[in-house]
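Why do we care about 3D structure at all? Because function follows from shape, and shape follows, mostly, from sequence. That is the central idea of this module. The next example makes it concrete: a single protein chain, its amino acid sequence, and then its structure expressed as C-alpha cells.
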Amino acid sequence: MKQYAVGVDFGGTNVKLALVNAQGKIVAREKFVTREAASQAAWMDAVATAIEKMLAAKKLKKSALAGIGVGVPGFVDFERGLIHDLTNVPGWTAVSLASKLQKKLRLPCYVDNDANLMALGEIAFGGGKNLRHAVFLTLGTGVGGGLVLNGQLYRGAYSMAGELGHVSIDLHGVVSPQGRGGLEQYVGNRRIVEYAVKLLKTGRTSKVEELCGGNYEKITPELLASAAQQGDAFAQEVFDYVADCLAAALASVTYLLQPQAFIIGGGVAASGKILFGPLRKHLAERLSPHFAKHLKVLPAKLGNDAGAVGGATLALTSQ
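And the structure:
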C-alpha cells in the first residue's frame, strides 16, 4: 500500500492541491488561481507542475503516490470520471477528466463532486468520524453537498446525489440552468455580496462602508464577516439572512433523511458563530422539536482542507 496521495480541490476561485499521507496529514501544499488556467490543457499543466513541486519539496518520487483525487464543483459521473458540467466554471462541459489526467500524469486519477470528497475527508479524519448519518455542505462560490447514510457515501443512481445547492427554497425564485429558487442563488459568495450591496444602496449605514472604503467592489463575505464580528448590526443582519436561507433547505433535508448532523465547511463557514448561531436558531424554528432536539450543526474540522484531504483519501482508499 502506497503511503501518499494528492488531493485536488477545484474551486471556482482557486485550485488547491495537497500532498497527504496515509494518516490524513498534509505534508505539502500548492495552489493556483482558477481563471489563470482557463483552458483544460492549461489547468492540467498547472496541476502537473504543482504536483512536481510538492514531490520535490518532500524529496519523493511519483511512484510514492497511490494516485490523484480531484473534487470539482459540479455534476460528475464518478464511475466514468466524467464532468457533466461545472456550475461556476465555464469550459468544463462533458469532460472525461479522470482519463485525460491519468494519461498526462501516468497515475491513477479519480474525479468526484467536491462536497462528496469533503464528506470522505471528514468521515476519515475530521468531524464525521463517529457519525453514521450526516450531511456535509461546502459554502463558497457555490454550495455543494455530500450525503453519508449508514456510514457510507451516498452518490445516488447516477453519481449526482447530494446537490443541496440546487434545492429550491423559493417557489417563484431565481431561475438558473439548475432550476428555480436554488439555495446557491441566495447564499453563494457573489449572491451574498449582491444582497449586502442592494441593502447599502437603500441608504443603510454600516461599518462595511468604512472597511471597503466606499468601494462596493471590495466587499466580500470575509469583509462582511469581519464587520459582523466587530458588532456591526447590518453585517449581522446579512448573515442572519444567509442562515435563514440555509435553514429553509436544511429543514427539508432533515425531514427527508433525519441526519445526526450537518457538517459545514468552505469559506463562508469560516465566519464561525456569526453564521452558526443564527443557523441553529432558524433551523430549530423550522423543525418539529422531535427532529430538532437530536440534530447538530457542526463546523467541518478540516476547514478549507477538507476537499483536498478528501481527494487524497479517495485515492488512498481506492488502491
